[in-house]
Write a structure and sequence with these properties.
Elements lengths: L2 H16 L8 H5 L20 E2 L12 E8 L11 E3 L2 E5 L5 E5 L5 E5 L21 E3 L2 E5 L4 E6 L5 E6 L14 E3 L2 E4 L11 E6 L5 E6 L16 H5 L9 H4 L9 E4 L4 E5 L8 H4 L15 E5 L6 E6 L14 E8 L2 E8 L5 E6 L5 E6 L6 E5 L4 E4 L9 E4 L13 E3 L4 E8 L2 E5 L14 E2 L7 H9 L2 E8 L4 E7 L8 E4 L3 E5 L4 E6 L5 E6 L9 E5 L2 E8 L24 E7 L25 H19 L21 H11 L14 H24 L1
Parallel strand pairs: 1-32
Antiparallel strand pairs: 2-38, 3-4, 4-5, 5-6, 7-8, 8-9, 9-10, 11-12, 12-13, 13-14, 15-16, 16-17, 17-18, 19-20, 20-21, 21-22, 23-24, 25-28, 26-27, 27-30, 28-29, 30-31, 32-33, 33-34, 34-35, 36-37, 37-38
Helix pairs in contact: 7-9, 8-9
The chain binds calcium ion.
Amino acid sequence: MNRLAAAGFTLLLALAACGRGPASVDEARILGADGEPGNWLTHGRTYSEQRFSPLDQINTENVGQLGLAWSYEMRAPRGAEATPIVVDGVMYVTSAWSIVYALDAATGEELWVYDPEVPHERGASACCDVGNRGVAVWNGRVYVGTLDGRLIAIDARDGSKAWEVVTVDQSRPYTITGAPRAARGLVFIGNGGAEFGVRGYVSAYDAETGALRWRFYTTPNPQGPDNAASDAVRGQALATWNPNAGAWLQSGGGGTAWDALVFDSETDTLWIGVGNGAPWNREIRSPSIEGRNNDNLFLSSVVGVDPDTGAYKCHYQETPGETWDYTATQPIMLATLPIEGRERRVLMHAPKNGFFYVIDRDDCGLISAGSIATQTWARGVDMATGRPIENPEARFISGTAIVLPSPFGAHNWHPMSMSPQTGLVYIPVQEMAQDYTADSAFVYRPGRWNTGTAHAPLPGDRATQQAVRNSMQGFLLAWDPVRQREAWRVELGSPWNGGTLATAGGLVFQGTLDGRFRAYDARTGAQLWQFDNQAATMAGPVSYSVDGQQYVASLASYGTLFFLPVGFGIADPPTEPVNARVNVFRIGGAASLPERTLVRLETPEPPSITASAGAIARGAAIYSQFCSVCHGAGAISGGVLPDLRRAPSLQDAGVWRDTVHGARAANGMPDFTQWVSDAEAEALRAYVAREARTLYAEERAR
Ligand code: CA
């Protein structure tokens, strides 16, 4: 018998033994996930989403011998954010543009690829690049939420589509980047888009038929009921908004649930992490009225609902009256912890706002809140009221406030993990400041970036740029959630590092922005191993086993949010797109990655444009308002989207103006006709040409 036939025979035996088809996952099986540690059945491995692997073949003693087993090149560059799901030797994973891949988990052999063919103009509605954080697997099917707002069920055997439903109003700037979750025969999915102006909600679909079973809106409808599960708390939520004024009446208020959706079988709850307000600036979103609560429920809250019906159970609002883009969408982890001598059913949460919350899963009561990063918006949390003790100046009612954390968050979507061996939670943390200024000239621009804040353009001089870049720091934090205190940390220099995985081998795995994939001693933080993944390693790693061999998988790619607005100071960005990869490791693995090739583009000689200093300043302000979120602050691209200083269109006023006015809309470049006049487009060109001349001179001086 040859190897392939032998493998097939083994698979048949395994199927016969279990009496189930491929990807035959159900609630009972996920609840029993600890009995089959070789699989990674759901987003955080188990429903508690602790991202702890019970496998210990790879451990602190032998991790130095860890090597690459195989690498698979996906069909898209840009941010790879997915957590792979591994069931019975098959890995299901996604890349940017919501493309799904089924791979042989032992060899990396491609079994099938499903491309939902998301129209690329949808990229213009994605605040934070076109990534996807993975699939759910349930009863022989693989479920993916697509960037253009569809939920698709795919046959796990051959990658054919079983059904698809549109979960959003596609005429509005909704996106889906989060992974669905499955339980109770339902598939749960949220959405994103609050920066542009949408109203958030979570939907539950019948896994077999795709029929909508319930929907819970995270902000109230000021017009009346929605005929949705959230109607029962509409009055309670509406009492915390200005019912008569504010941009929320147009935008829907935000509150998009774009990541954490955690099924809790012990308390019979679906936990929803709710996003920031639309616009960010509360006084523009929902102007305060003397004597009236303006907390804006359920923004920046953890909300518990009944998983079968969507009926509201309880909530805890982490950032009342959110005004800094402080989402509470970050991964939620369930556990039972000893608190003051008593076992408590808790959820743990490290949202953007810099606190680490331990919350009672039975009633949403706050148990404790610790500070995991420098924060200037609040001095702490008042345990009597459960509310933050705010620094009033941080609200930027007038003037500019420099605040930590920034909209990137002290912690973002990059998953944290927990080890029952150490009792510690391993969190990718970052410290970056943000200048917030109320946008006094705010007008609501449907479909476009609507935050109600203005930012000073990045100064053009390199020393200042470097100082700004150096002020952005990141670290891996080991946190004791019971005592709310630090156990150890590893300084990483840059922010935006990867999610973590804890294992029974006493290890913590994490990737970094600069492409290192590392293993640390879970007790001490000592670095025990690293590999050059060649590209930013941001997703949550997973571990699994096939035929008794333990593997660790990580995704490497170039892209995601950090690479769009913060181009400056990212060293040697590749100028040719490099497709994302799945890199998988085992003890003694001897494979290697292809040689990395960096292609450095030359900047063409910039055009001479006669423009006044005032016009260039106007161009810089327009750039900062409309362009910098994608093409990079200071006209310096992070390499994901075109660097405008090198754009051929810069040479020609007509081509430039047409591009600003929608000529490349099909490629994802928005049409700014309504917002940028011909004269302003030319002022913008003069500003970018000035920055291009600086770059051109630097290149010639090399
Ligand atoms: Ca946001």
